[in-house]
Amino acid sequence: xxxxxxxxxxxxxxxxxxxxVKNKSNxxxxxxxxxxxxxxxxxxxxxECNAGPxxxxxxxxxxxxxxxxxxxxxxxxxxxxxxKIKRNKESNNSQQISNxxxxxxxxxxxxxxxxxxxxxxxxxxxxxxLAERLKIYLDLxxxxxxxxxxxxxxxxxxxxxxxxxCLASVHFYRNQYQxxxxxxxxxxxxxxxxxxxxxxxALCYYLLDxxxxxxxVLALYWQKHPKSIIASNLKACNNYRLYNGTTAxxxxxxxIESFPTNFSYAKDFIRHNLVVFLNxxxxxxxxxxxxxxxxxxxxxxxxxxxKNDKNDEADNLIKNVEPKIPIEYILKAIIxxxxxxxxxxxxxxxxxxNYFQLVGSSPAECDTIxxxxxxxxxxxxxxxxxxxxxxLSSIKSYFYxxxxxxxxxxxxxxMMHSFKEAEEALLMIENENLKKDLVYICCLTRCYIMNAxxxxxxxxxxxxxxxxxxxxxLHLIANDCYKMGHFLVAxxxxxxxxxxxxxxxxxxxxxxxxxxxLQKILNKHDPIEHLYxxxxxxxxxxxxxxxxxxxxxxxxSQEM
Length: 560
Hints:
This protein is mainly alpha-helical. The chain has helices at 18-22, 31-36, 40-48, 58-71, 75-87, 94-111, 117-122, 128-141, 147-156, 161-173, 177-190, 197-207, 211-222, 229-242, 245-257, 264-277, 283-290, 295-307, 311-318, 326-343, 346-360, 369-381, 385-394, 403-415, 419-427, 432-435, 438-450, 454-464, 470-484, 487-500, 504-522, 529-538, 544-559. The longest helix is centred in the C-terminal third of the chain and has 19 residues, at 504-522.
C-alpha cells in the first residue's frame, strides 16, 4: 500500500561487502548484515544482546530499536521507545527531542491516533521534508483534499524520490491510480534499484481492474522476494479475480505457514482476505474483531450480509458511515435500492440512483469494471435497458460464470426483447436461491414462451405450483402464451385460473384459447391430440358456451 505499514525501502543486495563477510563469524550475522537484509527481528535481537551499532551510544541504539519496531508494524512499541528516549538524561538537546517527537507522530498516524498538528506545522529541523509530507497526509485524512490544497502540495513537494512518492500516494488516495503509476514508472526509469515500486504499480493496476497486468508487474518483484507478505497477498488477490477463491486460498495458506511470529497485523489481513476468498465462510467469527484495525472488514461484512439477503443488518452496519470511497457509495446504493424496491420507496430509489451515477460517471471510475456496473445499475433503476445492455456487454467477459451478473444481464436482455440471449444468460445461473426467486422464474418462463418453448414454460409452473406466487406465474403463462399463439398451454393456465376464481375474464380467456387450439388444428399447425385435451379442459367449465364449443369440436374430430 502507498501508506502501508510495510512500506519498506527498496532492497539493495550489494550493501554488504562480500570480502568483509568472509572474514567475520558465520555464526552470528553483523548488525549491518541484518540491516541490509531488512531483518528487523535480527536488529532487535542484537540490540537486546547489547550488540547494536554503537555499544556506547544508548540513544543511537534506541533509535534503531524504534525504527525496527516501526518497520515491523509495531507502532505502539516504537512510540514507547521514543518516549523512553525523551526521558533519557542524555536527551537534553531540544532539537533531538523535537526530532523524536516527529518520528513518534508518524507512528501515531499509522495507528490512527490524534496528532498535534500545530507541532507538525511549527517543526523546523533536519526532518522538515518529512514533517511537510506528514502534514499533507493529515490534511487528506481530515478531508481537506480540495483543489487548492493540491496546488499547495505541488508547491511544497520537491523532486526528491521521497516527495515524489508522497505525491503518488496523494493520487492513490484520491483513486487517481494512473497518475500514481506514471510517477512510479518515472522513478523506476531513473533508478531500477527501486524494485519495490513494482508492487505499488501492481497494486494500482489491480485497483484499475487490470489483474493480468498487475500480475505481470508484480512478478518482477515477487520472483526476487517470494517471501514478501505484501507481494504474496497481492498475488493471491489477483488470482482470486482472475481465477477463483480456491487458487487464492492456496496462495495464502502457504504464506501463513511461513509467517514471522511477530507479524500480527499481517496475520489479521490475511485472515480477512481468506474470508473473502472462501465466499464469506467464517465472516461472523473473523470480520467483527477486525473492524477497528482493517476498514475493509466492515465493508466485507456488509457485503456478506447483502449476499445472504440480510439487508437490515447491512444497513445497520454502515448506516452512520458517510461515504467517501467508491465501495462505500456502492454499498449505500445497493442497500437503498433494496429498501426502495421492497418498500416501493421513491426516496430510497432516488438515493440509490444518485450514488450509482456518482461512482459510474466519475473520471476515476468511469472506465473501471465497477464503474460500468454502477452505470448499468443506474440505468436499470430508471428503466433504460438499452443502456444497461450496452454497459454490461462491455464487461461481460469478466463475469462469464457470475450468477448475479447473468441475472441482471438476462433481465435487461428480456426487457429489450432479446429473448434468446436472455434465456441463455438465465440458464447459466447455478445459485439455487436465485432460481427460486419469483423474478427469475417469471423471466425464464417468459423467455421460454417468446422463444416458442411453451411446454418448458408449463413445466416451470408444474415445478413451482405449490408456491405462494404460483398464481402470478399462471397469469403470465396464460396471457403471454395467448399473445404468442401457444393456445393449448394458455388454455391450461386459464382453466386453473377459472377454477380459482369464477371471474368472467378467465372464461373469456379460456374460450379464446380453446378457439385458438381448434384454429391451429384446422390449419394443420397442431396435432389432433390437442383437440382432445381442449375438450377435456372445456368440460371443467359451467359456462353454457362450453358445451357449444365441445359439440363443435367433437363434430370436427369425427370428420377427421
